[in-house]
Every structure is written in C-alpha cells, then in structure tokens.
Amino acid sequence: MLGTAVGVDSRRNGLYVQGVYRHNVYTSNSLHIMKTSRPVHDFLPLKQDTFHVLLGMLDGERHGYALMREVSERSNGRIQLQAGALYRLLARLLEDGLVTESQRRSAADADDERRRYYRITALGKRVLAADAERMAGLAETARRALQAPTPA
Questions:
Q1: Strand residues in 77-132 grouped as ranges (E)
Q2: From the CB of residue 70, how many other CB atoms can be counted at a distance below 10 Å?
Q3: pLDDT at 29 > cutoff 70
Q4: Are residues 30 and 52 in the same domain?
Q5: Helix (H) or strand (E) holding 27
Q6: Torsion of the alpha carbons at 129, 83, 65 and 90, rounded to the nearest 10
Q7: Is a pLDDT exceeding 70 seen at residue 14?
Q8: Is the separation of the CB atoms in 119 and 57 below 8 Å?
Q9: Which end of the chain is less packed: N or C, by CB atoms within 10 Å?
Q10: CA–CA distance from 93 to each of 14, 16, 96, 112, 147 (Å)?
Q11: DSSP state of 111
Q12: What distances in angstroms separate CA 112 from CA 48, 63, 64, 65, 115, one per listed residue?
C-alpha cells in the first residue's frame, strides 16, 4: 500500500508531507503520525532470519547481541547473524510494526547504556504465529506425500 505521512513543521507552523511509504499507510491527527499496519498475510512467508529474530523476542525484550546469540543457539548454529544484517533487519521490523524499541534501560553498571532493547508487538506475534501455522501445514503435507505409496 502506498500512503503519505503528514506532520507538523514547527518552523512554518503548518502541515507538510513527509514522504510516500511502500509498506505502510500513515495517517495524521493534529500533532502526531500514527502508523496503520498491513494485514498479517502480507508479511508471509517470513525469511528464516526474520522468523528466528521474532521467535527470540517471545520470551521478553532483547538487545541486538542477545538476539544474535539466541538465533545462533536456537538454530544450532545454522543461522549466524552479523551485526549489520541484524540491525538492518531490526530497522525493517520496526518500520513494519512487528517490533518496537523498548524504553527499558538497564542500570549503568549492569549493562552497556548504548544498548537498544526491542520487543515483539501484538502484530509481530500474529505474523509469527501465522507463519508457524503455514510451516506446520507444509510439514504435514510433506509427511502425507512421503507416506503415500509410490506409483509403480
């Protein structure tokens, strides 16, 4: 969907058009921009790294390094996210409304204050669940096909 973001330009005391967005429709009320989500099926199928990153957030908020470790452990080392790729993926997930940046900040002595924490949104959970169901259906179809007698 295409949409236009409208905001308030404080220098001119008026409205301005921020841009046209490919994935989301943005609407405006008097002072802020509200993002309207795409339907769940528009996100499917998820790429493997996206699926694992969202899955890693189900247990709670995570920072980037923790997500990289979680994805590697969950995939038995098959998926190794590099920092640049992970942060590009997180930026896309933020834009799409599947994750949000947490306001959480750890105590300065317990964590690096520069770390940004992310959590999955309700939309992100629905998308993850829909893709898990899609994959379960594919697995069941494959099982049945593999158990069927082969033609002679």
A1: 99-101, 117-120
A2: 18
A3: no
A4: no
A5: strand 25-28
A6: -40
A7: no
A8: yes
A9: C
A10: 31, 26, 5, 23, 39
A11: S
A12: 29, 10, 12, 11, 6
Q: How many CB atoms neighbour CB 42 within 10 A?
A: 11
Note if the pTM is more than 0.90: no
Domain range enclosing 121: 43-147
Instruction: Note whether residue 152 is domain-resident.
Output: no
Based on the structure, what is the number of domains in the chain?
2
CA distances from 16 to 3, 107, 141 (A): 14, 40, 51
Same domain, 18 and 3: yes
User: Is residue 25 pLDDT above 70, yes or no?
Assistant: no
Share of the chain above pLDDT 90, in %: 62
Q: Are residues 31 and 49 in the same domain?
A: no
What is the CB-side half-sphere exposure of residue 89 using CA atoms within 13 A? 19
pLDDT digits 0-9 by tens, 46-61: 999 999 999 999 999 9
Model pLDDT for residues 60-112, shown as the tens digit of each residue? 999 999 999 999 999 999 999 999 999 999 999 999 999 999 886 655 545 56
The verdict on 15 and 48 lying in the same domain is: no
